[in-house]
Amino acid sequence: MDLSALNLRGAVDLSALKQRPAPPAGAGGGGPAAPGAAGGGPDHNAAAPLRVDVTEANFQELVDLSAQVPVVVALWAAYSPGSAQLVDVLEQIVDSYEGRLVLGAADIEAFPQLAQAFQVQAVPTAVALVKGQPVPLFQGGAEEQQVRSLFDELLKVAAANGVTGRLGAGGPGSAEPEAPPLPPLHQKAFDAIEAGDYAGAAAAYRQALIEMPADAEAKAGLAQVELMGRLQALSAAETEAVRGRAAEEPDNLEAQLAVADLDVAGGHVEDGLGRIVTFIGRNFGPERETARVRLLELFDVVGTSDERVAKARQNLARVLF
Question: Rounded to an integer, what is the distance from CA 75 to the centroid of its chain?
Fold first, then answer.
């Protein structure tokens, strides 16, 4: 999915973890060790330059590093048979991105506060950090192609938030900015996102589409910032209220679209897309068309090549025809 920089609104509070004092030397756990991987902090040997074993001592360093490159955090536990295998697979995939991503392996038995902060319900679970904010990825196992697709979208989200670094051969701590400049209107949009001005970002993307209607990145960016703007307008109290209203009023278009936004933003993509498809199947007239247009916008947010979008398209075709 496009993972939507939506999650950069900070749904998970990591502040308590960032402020925890470093434990005594020797405390904390190491991850399922890859050959040559060294734990304890971002500065480790070149045998596994993009793999870090997360501890209370180095967590803040990784949070800080996520302002330069996205940090993928694999939460694992010895009691979970699939954990070590997933960490190994993620390490190989992260290495193939040549410094654009970093992997942090976190043993939730040694660092239970991290699991609590990320609201982990099962292991293994993968999340990412971008500019210190969590972005949910997946829970349980995942196919390599699915992981690569998620990582590609993660990098788009990171770029939209000004995180475009690349680690050099020295591993974490040697990040260098990527070279190619963005098109002027895209840069204007990213600058607006940085300032929290989603309306300004949307205006820049719209202008880019006027000048180049086939600009797929501008189209996806517009869908993302419009979603971010809608979410920004919802307070915590309003979020609870709209969920209750959607449950009580299945044909309330505004409530169903709002909850679909929240679901997609929170990583519950199938629930969000399915909610709108169900609404379309029950309703006709202008409201059905409004819902269909919003669904297509969310397809752009999630990523048109995502399997969940393909499934939702099939379901949409069934209810329409």
Answer: 15
